[in-house]
Design goal:
By secondary structure, the protein is of the alpha/beta class. It is built from 10 helices and 10 strands. The strands form 2 sheets. It has a 5-stranded mixed sheet with strand order 3-2-1-4-5, sandwiched between helices. A hairpin with a 5-residue loop joins strand 7 and strand 8.
């Protein structure tokens, strides 16, 4: 089955073509990072307008890269939730129009299902069941992946996502947007014991997380130093912050794997690119004799290849079944 997928949940415009899920024939991405860097974060209206501007061109580019015609497509897939509602609507409406014009099924894909499916591209022999740690700008979740479409969140953040905290701390440090990689680069060589930062626990919910207190503590530390004219050890602070986030994610991931008795652990989402978290997960998995699957950096962020992959495992609808599809800013896994 040949599927063309569209991803427009935030500020990345993605179009990809896959064959039978795991073979990616084309993967086109247009990044708006430079546009939003002027404002220190994503501006939803700008994101939506730029999706409109580039989406048709990316579809043409993806088909050219794959060496296919529109008539060769068996289905169109699209991210319909969660994300920025205006951005999602651009992709959903484009996908509906394309599916209707071609007379092929439209397959809705949940954005987080897509992130998890990125591992199927990187590891062709991987199959459920497994535990997946999903860490991105909007989500921090531990997911029991029982089957390709049967999943349950067994632990999650009660407030901010880890990725949102990385971006906010980077912004306060003047590192710009997107801040995750810049903060990771700054942390290299820093002493992760430079600043004592809080580690939170949730009474009665050991697998749940909270990052708002950590974010507030770091921002207050930076502001207090500026007000007092003190010199910050920026590299040490970045390393201390990364260590605190990792300490919230890694032990809970191992605990969840033990609870579920799963040998395989996957990671997904943009924060999965963070070097400290990757290193700590590798060490913990080795110590616990579990197999860790880390997606390559190119598949950690938003892309349409992961949507095309997941779409293959979704129920194939009738050609007219989802033409009334709507987009949703929030939707449970």
């Amino acid at each position: 089955m040949t599927i063309l997928a569209i991803e427009t949940s935030c500020d990345e415009t993605g179009v990809a073509v896959s064959r039978n899920g795991r073979e990616i024939l084309a993967n086109q991405i247009f990044s708006q990072a430079d546009l939003h860097a002027l404002y220190g974060g994503v501006v939803p209206e700008i994101a939506s307008r730029n999706h409109i501007t580039v989406l048709a061109k990316l579809v043409e580019g993806a088909l050219l890269e794959a060496g296919l015609q529109k008539s060769d497509l068996d289905a169109i897939a699209v991210t319909y939730a969660p994300g920025l509602i205006g951005a999602l609507l651009v992709g959903v409406n484009f996908a509906k129009s394309m599916a209707y014009a071609l007379g092929v099924p439209l397959i809705p894909v949940h954005h987080i299902h897509g992130h998890i499916a990125a591992n199927y591209i990187a590891y062709p022999n991987l199959a459920p069941p497994f535990l997946c740690l999903v860490v991105s700008g909007g989500h921090s979740q531990l997911v029991d992946v029982r089957d390709y479409t049967d999943m349950e969140v067994i632990g999650s953040t009660r407030d901010d996502a880890a990725g949102e905290c990385f971006d906010k701390v980077a912004r306060v440090l003047g590192l710009g947007y997107p801040g995750g990689k810049a903060l990771d680069d700054l942390s290299q060589g820093g002493d992760d014991q430079s600043y004592p930062l809080p580690r939170s626990t949730i009474d009665g919910a050991p697998l749940d997380m909270s990052f708002s207190g950590l974010k507030t503590a770091v921002i207050n530390l930076i502001h207090n130093a500026e007000q007092k004219g003190e010199t910050l050890d920026r590299s040490g602070l970045a390393a201390s912050f990364a260590a605190a986030v990792s300490d919230a994610l890694v032990p809970r991931t191992m605990q969840a794997a033990q609870k579920l008795a799963y040998q395989n652990i996957c990671v997904a989402g943009g924060v999965a690119a963070n070097s400290r978290i990757r290193k700590d997960l590798e060490a913990a998995a080795q110590q616990d004799s579990r197999k860790l699957y880390l997606p390559p950096l190119a598949l950690c962020g938003d892309n349409a290849a992961m949507i095309a992959c997941q779409a293959y495992y979704e129920k194939l609808p009738d050609s007219l079944e989802h033409l009334g599809l709507n987009a949703y800013a929030t939707k449970p896994l």
